[in-house]
Design a protein that fits this description.
The protein is 50% helix and 12% strand. The chain is an alpha/beta fold. The protein has two domains: 24-142, Response regulator (Rossmann fold, 3-Layer(aba) Sandwich), CATH 3.40.50.2300; 159-235, no CATH class. The strands form two sheets. It has a five-stranded parallel β-sheet, with helices on both faces. It has a two-stranded antiparallel sheet with strand order 4-5. Strand 6 (97-102), helix 4 and strand 7 (118-121) form a beta-alpha-beta unit. Helix 1 packs antiparallel against helix 6 and helix 7 (179-196) packs antiparallel against helix 8. The chain is globular. The relative contact order is 0.13.
């Protein structure tokens, strides 16, 4: 169970319907939309959730308490989540369960190579998949006794969280469009778009990523993403 956790409530034990009751899960994720999905999954499972939106914030959290589970997005605004996975995998005492998450095809291989115990492919919307990823890696004494109800509920994050992410992208592009920023925007937008089922935005993000990888001019790709983002902010596109 959680150690050194000021948020912990004593004598809360998992049940068949709330198998993660008593656990604190730290989610290191910069997307509000993805974070909202994780919040709903934790809520349905009985777990407490704490969120860090960057590596710096995650390390601050870990100075205060050690969660039972940490879910780490691989693409963060101040660096790669892989570095945090490596640090935690080698730390003593170790966080009980380390899970990587990403929408990239290579994400699972990279996360497992860095020392993660498991991987959640975005979008993470299945309650059963989320619970299984955590429970199968917990110590036996922290799992619910007896049979567990396998609820394959599909959660749906609040569309307002998607709007928050669009506003974040607009702010980032207004501040800078250097190479590092554009790589981050391509990764961030691509992940949100796939999670939200927004194919136009996903295609635009993939186009920017390809252009950056090939060393080509990025003005048109960047303008395309900026235009789609503004369109969604102005018209609050249904997702």
């Amino acid at each position: 169970m959680d150690e050194l956790d000021p948020f912990a409530t004593p004598n809360r034990h998992p049940t068949p319907t709330r198998p993660l009751l008593g656990l604190t899960i730290l989610v290191v994720e910069d997307s509000r939309y993805a974070s909202e999905a994780m919040r709903l999954l934790c809520l349905r499972s009985g777990a407490r959730i704490r969120r860090a939106d960057c590596l710096k914030s995650a390390y601050r959290h870990l100075q205060v308490y050690r969660p039972a589970v940490i879910v780490i997005d691989l693409g963060l605004p101040d660096g790669s989540g892989l570095s945090l996975i490596r640090d935690l995998a080698e730390s003593v005492p170790r966080v009980g369960v380390i899970l990587g998450t990403s929408g990239e095809d290579t994400g699972e291989t990279l996360a497992m190579s860095a020392g993660a115990d498991g991987f959640l492919a975005k979008p993470v919307t299945s309650l059963a998949v989320f619970q299984q990823a955590v429970l199968t890696r917990l110590p036996a004494e922290d799992r619910p006794a007896g049979l567990r109800l396998c609820d394959d509920e599909q959660i749906e994050p609040d569309p307002l969280a998607f709007q928050d992410d669009m506003a974040h992208v607009a702010d980032v592009l207004n501040e800078s469009q250097d190479d590092k920023v554009l790589d981050y925007v391509a990764q961030f937008v691509g992940g949100i778009a796939r999670s939200a089922g927004d194919t136009s935005l996903a295609d635009a993000a993939a186009g920017l990523a390809r252009t950056r990888a090939n060393g080509g001019p990025v003005a048109s790709d960047t303008a395309r993403i900026a235009g789609l983002v503004q369109e969604r902010l102005l018209h609050r596109k249904a997702i």
